[in-house]
Amino acid sequence: MTGPEAERDTRVTLRTVVRALGLLWSAAPGWSAGFAALSLLAGVLVPLDAWLLARALDTVVDGSGRGAAVSAVALLGAAAVTTAVVAAVTRYAESELARRVALRAKGTLMRAVARIAGLELLERPAFLDRLRLAEQAGSGAPQVLIQAVFGALRAAVAAAGLIVVLAAVSPWLVLLTVAGSLPAAVAAVAESRDRARMLWGITPGFRREMFYGTLLTDAGAAKELRVFGLGDLLHDRMTTELRAIARAQRAVERRAALAQGGLAAASALLGAGALVWGAVQAVAGTITVGDLSMLVTGLAGLRAAAAGLVRCFGDGHHSALVFGHFEAVLETAAAAAVPTPPPPGPRLHTVRPTGVELRDITFRYAAGHAPVLRGVSFTIPPGAMVALVGANGAGKSTIVKLLCRLYEPTSGSIRWDGRDVAGLPPDAVRRRIGVLFQDFVRYDLTVADNVGFGDVRRLGDEAALRAAVRLAGADTVVERLPQGYRTMLSRVFGGTDDADGVQLSGGQWQRVALARSLLRDDADLMILDEPSSGLDADAEAALYEHLRTERGGRSCLLVTHRLSAVRHADAIVVLAGGRVVEQGGHDQLLAAGGEYARLYRRQADGFGRPADAAAG
Ligand SMILES: Nc1ncnc2c1ncn2[C@@H]1O[C@H](COP(=O)(O)OP(=O)(O)OP(=O)(O)O)[C@@H](O)[C@H]1O
């Protein structure tokens, strides 16, 4: 991101600060109030300490007697004990507050991202960069903001108290010390802006570095990395990214060190001058020894408090800037979210059952991209099985994603029983669908979860799980597992005993994923994208037989390159270059001698038999 948007990201708005503090308060109101009170107390203790020390010294020097001296020193000791206890309790309160805020922030962020309706946002690099910063900001920024706000409160109270006690000795020295810390405050804000700009600039590099790092440690990628010898190459690419990130960070740190170093040296000089003046005054008898001690500790305390204030201001400014990303992601995600709670979806095939119709659909993935689908029209009649075939990249999986409302058509409409689904919440439509994606997810969880995730209402319903598993032909897989449905399908999260987790083969995984998509037996539409690509010949034949005879009235869209599997479909839609080039029954398309016949003959030739025989 560049230009005005980047500039906007280096400005803190009051709203962001208020929201960050709001998050803090909502996550832990009691701890927030307690932490504020402790910070105030810690602030008051600083000038009190300096004042008590001065009084104790004066009591000893002016000969007020043993009793007075002992009680003055005892008071000083009590203040020191209180300071130590307050510091320890504050540290604990601070970490507890941080834990609670991190929990709340992460939960809020992940819930918002999970509710994003489609995929478009999750494929936008700028959004992904912001999401990464938001993850960091959500857990870290409120904590830094807590430290900054309450640290500033502590420092301000301490500074105010010290100003009051020191003003009695030398008002102009106080004025000089306070004025001396102003340039540092300006430098802190400039540094925090510089840091925020740098952070945004290095985020794409961080994402790439994480990608390489994950590849290098991922068990799934390990085979290719080792056989192709990619380890060193990926490692080099990762370190190149890390070096670029380090260069950007170093530049900011250098600028900050120069500015801070210069200002700290100036402030130390000022302090030394003040002490020389104090010593001269004490020797001349203009001020007491107690006053001199108060000058020594008080001015040091005031300088520390001022530096603390500046640091808190800079940290607070920076964390508010970073928290802006958290806010921005929540806003963007909310704008793209499915409505909560989703209204109940209309049942398909009930009122005027006309099925699912794609009407003149054109679709491009992003503005500026060429259209992937151009004027696609076809219908999946109620209860029918329609096969979608075509070459790689023809647009088949894109149609699957559009039916699932993961993207919206650029033009044209999808109608369920004549009703345009664009007017319905995506969730309402999705509840009517059972889907197996080509790149289905392999959850590192139990069989029961892997199947049950197809319909969370039935997670614990063993009878339903068994029925779906049988229909998918996965029953033979589950029967052989050591703990049946409770077997963990993961070697990574298998448990402490290495034998606990099981790694399935590709085809076995496909059967489990298929069972997941079949679990919704009340769905109106089943979408199966390459359901048999990993299955052996027997399993494939059994699957299509099951789908033909045991669909229970569900319509089915079958996407496949295995043309032998589509012969018995009620209709076949042939896609080429994003257009429907033919549609009809198997015999009709074969007789037409077009694209389908060509593809079919090519596959039949592969088995060394004439297409007509293959068709029989
Ligand atoms: N998320 C995406 N962003 C941008 N372009 C995409 C995306 N997904 C797919 N495409 C493009 O859309 C076109 C159609 O892809 P699609 O996955 O729908 O083809 P397909 O017919 O399912 O192919 P295959 O048989 O190889 O699975 C391809 O040119 C692909 O590059």
UniProtKB/TrEMBL annotation:
Cited Pfam families: ABC_tran
Protein name: ATP-binding cassette, subfamily B
Family: Belongs to the ABC transporter superfamily. Siderophore-Fe(3+) uptake transporter (SIUT) (TC 3.A.1.21) family.
InterPro entries with a match to the protein in the record: AAA+_ATPase, ABC1_TM_dom, ABC1_TM_sf, ABC_transporter-like_ATP-bd, ABC_transporter-like_CS, P-loop_NTPase, Type_1_exporter
Transmembrane spans: 21-48, 68-90, 144-166, 172-190, 257-280
PROSITE patterns assigned: ABC_TM1F, ABC_TRANSPORTER_1, ABC_TRANSPORTER_2
Ranges for domain ABC transporter: 356-602
Keywords, comma-separated and alphabetical: ATP-binding, Cell inner membrane, Cell membrane, Membrane, Nucleotide-binding, Transmembrane, Transmembrane helix, Transport
GO cellular component: plasma membrane
GO molecular function: ABC-type oligopeptide transporter activity; ATP binding; ATP hydrolysis activity
Membrane topology, as annotated: Multi-pass membrane protein
Ranges of residues in domain ABC transmembrane type-1: 36-315
Compartments in which it is found: Cell inner membrane
Highest taxon of the lineage: Bacteria
Matching Gene3D superfamilies: ABC transporter type 1, transmembrane domain, P-loop containing nucleotide triphosphate hydrolases
